[in-house]
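Structure ticket #2291
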Amino acid sequence: MKFRQLLCFSTLLFGGANAEPEVGGRSLSEGIKVVRPSVGEDAWQKIGWRDGLLTAVDEAKKLHRPVLLWTMNGNPCGET
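Resolution: structure written out below.
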């Protein structure tokens, strides 16, 4: 019997096939709940962001609102 077959057979035999995998001491479903955004954390996606600076400045002047200018240099993961 090959090793893979033996491993699959022993997993089925000892009930490991029904067990939920663990990640960092938590079950997989608990881990998914931790990393998904909760209600309100993704509200920034509902904002009508502008990708053109001059268009945003003109609109902000008309509405008497400030402009948020986000600039970045390098890799977004900080691997520069």
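Closing remark: The chain has three helices and two strands.
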